[in-house]
Task: structure prediction
Amino acid sequence: MTETLVAQDEIQSVARQCLAQGYFLESFTAVDFAECIELVYHFNHWGPCQRSCVKVLVPKNGGSPGAWSTPSISSIYKSANWFEREIHEFFGVTFAGHPNLKRLLLPESSEIFPLLKSFKGEPKGADVTQSLKLMQEDTREFKTQEAVSLTQKNKDYYLNLGPQHPSTHGVLRVLLHLAGERVLAGEPIIGYSHRHHEKMMEIQTYLGCWPNMGRLDYVGAMSYNMGYALLAEKAMGLVPTPRAEHIRVLMTELNRVSSHLLWMGTFLLDLGAFTPFFYCFDDREKILDILEMATGERLTYDYFRFGGVDRDIPAEFAPAIKDFIPEFKKRLRDYDKLIRQNIIFEKRTKGLGILTKENALAYGVTGPSLRAAGVAQDLRRDEPYSLYPTLDFQVPTSTDSDAYSRYWVRFREMEESLKIISQLVDKIPAGETKLARIPKNFPKGEYYSACESARGTFGMYLVSDGTLNPYRFHLRTPSFSNLNAIVDMLPGCVVSDVVAILGSIDIVLPEIDR
Amino acid sequence: MIFKELIKIIIYGTLVVLFISVNALFLVWAERRVSARIQLRRGPIHVGWQGLLQTVADAVKLISKELVLPKEADRFLYILAPMLVFAPLLSAFLVLPLAQNVVIRDLNIGFLFIFSLTNITFIGIFIAGWSSNNKYALLGSMRAVAQNISYEIPLLLSTMGVVLLTGTLKMSELVPAQAKGWFLFTQPVAFLIFLCSSLAEANRAPFDIPEAESELVAGFHTEYSGMRFALFFLGEYTAIFISSAIAAALFLGGWQGPLLPGLVWFLIKTYGIIFIVMWIRWTFPRLRSDQLMALAWKVLIPLAMVNVFVTALVLELQKILA
Amino acid sequence: MNYLKEIFRGFWSLLVGMEVTIRYFFKKPVTVIYPRERLPIKRFKGPIAFVVDEKSKDHLCIACNACIKICPSRCMSLEIGKSAADGKRVLTDFKVNYMLCSLCSLCIDVCPTDALKHAEGDYDMVSLTQKELVMDLLEPFEKRGTPLTKIPLAPQTPAAAK
Result:
């Protein structure tokens, strides 16, 4: 990974160069230091991993939060739009030239910059009067957006799809500008399940960050465990035991299948088919049973540890997987008959929600949604970690980049994951699952590592000052960038398609809001 | 004379309303059981034998619920809409041939009468969506109207084949005409078109776009609660029963059948079709509104017209040959 | 001709789908009537509890505070007193607030005497009040009436309590 420090006013030209060379903005965050705010851009390349880190220092000059200004790159990288809004609200950095520099995750009316080290406020959650005040201010904001009433003779109107809506997969609000049923524009509004994991982890010990990992993306939590384990092992120079390594990959892949199954069920639910949802859940339950056998948990796993895993797997673990695989393969054929071959499904999804390669690059889309656009980018292959270099698996891609190909890519990914599982299940070596001694804290420095979660690239940027707590811990979650990309998919489709597009990109809201 | 008529009306009316409620309760239960079994679940099993009384319990709950009236709603229309949806469906029972010689009024315009009256329900649905003053409800009712107008045509065209074969619209004459063979075998395409369009007319999946819950929350009845909501529900299941009953009468030989009495045969056939309707609902995704229109105008109507044409041609040829 | 072919293909695909669902219609349901039937739990992370030592029938806690320090949700608390018999420091109170606990099992990992475990009990815990979810880990030891249950305390002086 190359690292360069550029001046504030050079960042736009650097970003333009990066975009021209096919780099996408993987992660973008800030770190608060005494004299300056350091902006950290991580650019990555499709295909074999060439990550480069660009840093910009925004001097504080004794000013107050909000007065620090730096040029925006949101006109170059569309994904920077949300990243910059996030940094603006957490650090008080103003991005000159940003079109819509509002609060993103916190309520519009809040006046705090929580990630600044000078922020000494207690979490405001317990303060009922303050919360009520914030809520009232939010409703005031809400009403101004609702001004267009049905009785007006306007042909276009606004519709709030969510935050309470059956198919927004959590609490997401999509503000739609409609003419009849046709969508003129749409904007996702997030932050309803924001818990500020990053701040939470700054006051935790490094071991104490584990529970947070399971609660970011509760559908595919194992990949997040994997990500943190990789980061820690990279920083501390640990080598996990072979047995633990095998168990980890098995767990991650099983969890990936279960995550895709949940996605498949809910996607079909969005399209109006109820039955596949139950079949998917039936299979998912079986996977969860297997995972429960080892972890004792069904959803928010925190199973991995630095250099190992929490508990050893029981004896019936491998036989259970071996029983499950043929059964599931049979079920996959039924899914194919019931879903992909179905004419209604085909008509509903083909040509819907097209994500062009240019947009995918500009928005930093990763994961199956990107692979459906014909880019074989998979960190398991491009930046091999754990056991993946030794395994035989394909990276399924599709060329149509519509909802149908996103379905098809995920479907084949499940098959590939099964292939990985069946390669490993017989070869779990005996031995320890934990290292005898692990350091308590990360050595001083900066670390970035990424892994492939079920939804895309999960990156973590950690700044350690050598103390027991992380100095700054930024999480680059895949759905955050993927969701932003729907802004360009929505115009022109109808309301029915909005839910289909939302379903097809596979979002998990707690992971976006963090 | 008038007195006798009045008594007759009251008795028949009570029987029909009773049948509708019991039938809807049973159908809701059946739907839940069928969907449960298809989805590897069990469905309601706790209240009553095999959970049969579950829907009764639900109905009691719905009756006891508060009737919410949205602040911005058009009060009069909002209250009128559920009745307008439900009431016309009662009239359809007038002409259904339940068994041999058991027809309340054997009108000579037969099933045309049913279609013309049951379509008033769509005005009710539109009013419901409009008066709720809710964007989702309005979208739902807009879709409902468009859908209804489109599917009326293939629905009626598909029955024309049968009418051509028998030369009558009278329900009591249509059924005996199938003594030799069901029209299902002579008019298979018409049957499929009829089934498809009646699904759309009854707002059933995969054509349930007016109430598509994953898109429009609950469509036109988003704002309704308690018994008003229950009336929509009752109306939907009654509409399914009626269209299945017509299908049974037109294509499956109505009350005709060996051994068992006519009414039993008629109900067996009707519920058989209802089972298929449920089976379809729990198998397919929902169509998009424009695809729904395309299906009606590009596929069903041309096919129905061809069907009418072919039927007429064959009949004429038969005449010439004879 | 293509038009008819397309219609037929669509119709056939619908039949294929219906074949699948009717096959599942005749399969045995996979659901379990929960309160009456229960699935066995293979491994379960229950609330934090003390390991009961085979020999002494007592807990193994030495009140070293390691678990308190590592707990990410800060849901544990313990109090130390002095035993009247030999003046050694003993545990007088150990509480886990189950409402806050995230079941990460870090306390179990860190415990030097392996005194903690996840309770292998029922998975359908329920409580009507929040108070019930603040668990007193020493409670079972007092109930069972073994010799070491009631920890003999030194006379409570304000200094000793601290």
About this structure: The longest strand of chain A covers residues 23-32.
